[in-house]
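Entry
Fold in token form

___
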Amino acid sequence: MAINTVAVIGAGTMGAGIAQVCAQSGWQTNLFDAFPEGLEKGMKTIDSFWEKGIARGKTTQQQKQQWSKNISQFTDMKAAVKQADLVIEAVPEIPKLKSEIFEQLGKYTNQSCILATNTSSLSISDIAAASGCPERVIGMHFFNPVPIMKLLELVRHDLCSQKTIEIAQRAGMQMNKTTILVNNIPGFATSRLGVVLGNEAIRMLADGVASAKDIDTAMVLGYKHPMGPLALTDLVGLDVRRDILKNLQKSFDDDSYAPHPLMEKLVASGRLGKKTSMGIYDWSSGEAEECSLPE
């Protein structure tokens, strides 16, 4: 099945990034958000990314103009998805919210439309069941920043059809992503490994093993990670990683996944990472700078 129109549900950090790569892939891209201010912010994020690309000589003004024509804005979800060949949901990790959205998507979309969720830790089976058409639901887990990160983690569940998997794999290729296929086990492959590493790095920081910068430098230079685990935690969002850890703790009934108290303190104080300019690091300058941490 050829993909011509993609609808993206949610215009936050991930949704905006997904919409951007879809538009750059040449697809008609319908970006939906229930809140006009969220939609406006998402479009500004996309425009800013393209402008930075132009300034660096990686993007032309002509490309931006063409890509911009591929994106349409919607505050009516039914209108956004009714002609879509692929719908990608990218709303917060709230099970009830995702289930409600997929219940609507099952009613609003045509029978050949593939429904994907960008969840990083929730059960794909549970989300798929809400749609009433689980055979055409799959996990498509993107990574932040979406336009740069090459990996796309596809998550299949027991009722996911082979056709759905193949279409999702082709879509990933068209978005210039490398896809991996994993089973619907809590945390999948990437989140399970990533949050554990980040949580242990926060434990080391709290224990005084080394500074945040030195812990991150150890992983960048010693293990060739492109970014240290603490900076990455700030980039993903401390609240997002905290929620993933809690989901893993509950799913496996294993307290070794419990978020470290320092992570909980940072989230409680509103220091969520780069998106709030403060997290483990101070990002107010645009770069990661060492700062004091809650006692």
User: Anything to note?
Assistant: The CA atoms of residues 103 and 131 lie 4 Å apart. The beta strands are 5-9, 28-32, 71-74, 86-89, 114-117, 137-141, 151-156, 178-183.
